[in-house]
Batch of 4 targets.
Target 1
Amino acid sequence: MNQLAKNLACEWAKDNIRTNSVGPWFIRTPLAEPLLNDEKLLEEVKWRTPMGRIGEPKEVSSLVAFLSLPAASYISGQTICVDGGFTVNGFFFP
C-alpha cells in the first residue's frame, strides 16, 4: 500500500489528484473487539505501543478528514501511521 500511494501520487498529480494512505495499528472497532477481549493479547499490544493504549476510531477519522482539507493540499504519496508510535518503536521481540 505504501508504494501504491507513491506510484499513484506520481501518476495522478498532473490531474490534480492527491493519493495518500493511512496505516493504523490496533484501533478499537467492532472488528478488533474480539482480539482486544483477549487480555493477554491486549496487554502485549499495549506493551509494544509507546503510547501504551489502543487507538480510537476518531483518531483515524480525524487524519482522513485532515487529508481531505485544503490545508493538506500539498501532501501526496504519503503513508501516515496512526499507531501510537508502534512503527517508530521497532519490532522488538523479547
Target 2
Amino acid sequence: MSFPNRPIAFVLTASNHGSMIVNRNDYHLVDGTNGYGVGYQILSNSCFDESEIRFALMLLDCRRKHFGDGVVAIDGGANIGVHSIEWARHMYGWGAVLGFEAQEIVYYALAGNVAVNNCLNARVKLAALGEVCGELIVPQPDYFTPSSYGSLELRGHDRNEFIGQRVSYDAASGNKVPMVNLDSLGLERLDLVKLDVEGMELEALRGGRSVLSEQHPAMIIEVIKSDRVAIEAFLTALDYRIFPAGLNILALHSTDPTLQQVSYQNGMTMLHV
C-alpha cells in the first residue's frame, strides 16, 4: 500500500509551556527576516509573550489573595492555548479556565494542547465571543500557507490586516460557528477576562455588561484593532480604571483591591504581588 504525499502543517514541539501542537506555518515575515505569530515565537524562542503571561498569572494570584480559591478566568481568543494552559497549570487546585477560539482548525490544536498537558481545570469551546448569541461565519485561511493565523479578523472590512495571504470573507467559503456573549455563560464568579479577538473586543464587552457589572473581573484587552476611545468610555461607565499595557489595556474596577498593587512607571504598568 502506498501513502499519498501530504504537506505537514501541525507539529508537536517541546516548549517552555509544555508539549504544544503548533502550526509550523504560523508566521508572517514583514521584511523577509523578521516575523510574528504564535507559532513563530514558540518555534523561534520556545515561548510566547512571556512578560504578558507572567502579568496575567500575577493578576490571578491577586484575585486569589483578595477573593479566595475558586478563581475563574476567561481566555477570549485563545488561539492554540498558551495562556489557557499556563493559567490552568498555575491554578491547579484553586482555579479554572474557560477558553474560546473561533477558528475551527486552530481550535483542534487548542483542545489537543489542553489534553496533552493534562490541564483538566480548563474547558475550551469552538465559539466566537460577541455582543449577542447566534452564529458567525468565520473565514478559513489556508493553514499550509505561512501566515499569522492569530491575526485573522473574523469580520471583513476595507482595513483588514494582511496576515500573509489573501483571505476571502465570502460567506460561502467560511465556516459557521456559534457566537456567544459573556452574559449567557451564567457565571456566578468571574475574576479575569482576556480579550484578544481581533477587533471584536468592544462587541464582546457589550455582551458582558451584566456579568462585568456584577462580578467586576480584572481585564486584559487588546486595543490595536478596536476603537480604544469607545472601549475606555464603556469601561469608565462601569467604574473601571484603565492602565496602558503594551498592545493591551489593563482594566480594574474601582472596588478591586488589586488597584493597591498597581503602579505606572516609565511608561509601563507594573503589578506588585
Target 3
Amino acid sequence: MKVLTVFGTRPEAIKMAPLVKRLQLEEGIESVLCVTAQHREMLDQVLALFELVPDYDLNIMKQNQTISQITSNVIMGLEEVYKKERPDIVLVHGDTTTTFAAALAAFYQQIRIGHVEAGLRTYDKYSPYPEEMNRVLTGHLSDLHFAPTERNRKNLLAEGIADSHIFVTGNTVIDALLEVAGKPYEFEEETLRSIDFENKRLITVTCHRRENLGENMVHIFSAIRDIAEEFTDTEIVYPVHLNPKVRETAGAILGNSSRVHLIEPLQYQPFVNLMAKSYLIITDSGGMQEEAPSLGKPVLVVRKETERPEAVEAGTVKLAGVSRETIYKMAKELLANKGVYDRMARAVNPYGDGHACERIVKALKQYGEESNNQN
C-alpha cells in the first residue's frame, strides 16, 4: 500500500512528522513524503528536528503570496507528483491552504484521501479564515477521516459522512509533543537563558491569526501590557510571528515594556520547553490548545470562538475573546487565585494519550486490506 503524505506549514509538519516516521517503519506500507513549503524556514526546522527528508519538495513559498497563488501552485505542482507516484491514498492534515489544495488535486486524479485532524468546526466560514472552509471542503473530498475527538466525529456525522469512514484517534500533536518533551534540552536563545524561571512566573504568548490583525491585536497586546505592569513577579515571552503587520503592532504596544520579551520565532524543540516552563499561556493558536494541557499549563484563547470546544468543556482552556478588559480580567484571576489556577492545570487533556499515529496506521492497514479484498 502506497501512502503519500503532503504538508506545507510548520504546524502540519509537527503534527504529521510522527505519523510519517511510523509509516516509514511499517511493514506493508510504502511511504512517500511531499512538502509544498507553503512555509519554508519554519518547515525546514521541523523536518530537521524529526530527521525527515522529503521525496518531493514543491518549494512554492514566495514573499507576499496570496491564498489564490498558494492554492494554484500546490494543485499544479502535485498534479505531476500524483501522476508519477499513483498512491493508494493521499494523507493531508487539518486546515491549511496546502491541505485543501492537496486534497482537491488528489480528487482530480481520483486518488483516495485521508484527512488527519478531521471534523473541527466553528461553523463560521470567515473565522478562522480561510481555515474553516479549508477543513470543511477537505472533509467532503476525503474518504477516510481521522478525528481527534468524539465531538469531531459527531460533527462529521452531522454533515453526512459515513460512520464507517471515521476513526477517533486522538490528536497526533500529542505524539509529537511527548516525543520532543522527553529529550533533554537547554535554551540557546540569549533572552530565555537570562530569565529567572525559578522565581518568576512565565507567561508565553503567541498571536498571529488573520482575523486578529488590526484592532483585535491592539486590544490583545494592550491587555498583555496591563498584565505585565500589574504583576511584577511575571515575565512574558512572545516569539513574534514573521508577519510584518504583527511585528509592527507588537513593537508599538509591547516594545517598551521591561517584562515583555519580544523574541524571534522559536523552533519546535525550544518552544515545547518554553511551554513546559510556563505558568500560563495566552494564544490564538489552535495547536497550543491541544499541547499545553498535556504539560499541565492553563490556556487563555484570545479569539471569539474555538473549533476545540472539548478543551473548554474539560476546563484546560478558557475562551477570553479579544476584549482588552476581558483578557486582563481572566489572566488576573489565574495569576491571583490559586484555586482557579489549579483546577485548570490539573484538568485532563481531551486530545489524546500519545498513541494517535498508531491508531491511524492501524486504520490505514485495515482500509488497505478491505480494498484488496474488494478488488
Target 4
Amino acid sequence: MTISVFLLDDHEIVRRGIAQLLESADEVTVVGEAGTAAQAVARIPALRPDVAILDVRLPDGDGVSVCRDIRSAVTPPPACLMLTSYSDDEALFGAIMAGASGYLLKQVSGVDLLGAVRTVAAGGSLLDPKATAVILERLRRGNEPVDPRYESLSPQERRILGLIADGLTNRQIGAEMYLAEKTVKNYVSSLLHKLGFARRTEAAVYAAEMRKGGHER
C-alpha cells in the first residue's frame, strides 16, 4: 500500500529534508507541500493525501486550524500529524480537539517519524493517553464559571497574556507571533484595559492564577 503525504512547514529547507526522508521509504510518496496555512487549505482537498504533516506555528495561522479545516472539508479526512519545535500544552489541547492523530516534536528521529506516518495512515493514534486524560478533565471543567474579563479577550490577546506570564518582552512576543512590536504593544494595552490592570506584572500574576485554576484556554 502506498501512503500519500502532504507537508506543511514555513521553512523550505525543513520541507525538503522531511520529503527526502519520507521518500526513502518505498511505500511513502509526498504528493504536495505548502509554506502557509492558506496554501495548505487550498491544496489538500484536491490532493486527498492519506497523511498531512502540519507545522503548528505558521506565518499566517497555525497547523491546528488547518487540521480542523481539512478534516471537515475532505472525505475521508487525512490523518493529521502535528509537528512543532517545542512542547506546548495549548497547542496539544487544540490538536486533540481538532482531531489530530499525533503530535510530534521536530527533534523526532527519522525512523520515528516514518513509524508515525505508517501508524496514523493505518488508523492508529500517537497521542499520549495521559495528555488525552488532561484534555477530558479540561472539558469537564468547561462547565465551571470563567472570569468574564478573561472571556472578553480575543484569542490573540489570550495568547499574548500567556506569553506575558512566561516573562516575554513585547519584542520577544512579536518574534514568537510574527507580529510587529508596535502591534504587540497595542494588544497588551487592549488586554490590560479589558482586565482592568495598569501594569503587565498584574496581568502576569492573573494569567498564572488562571492556569492554576485550569481556566486558561
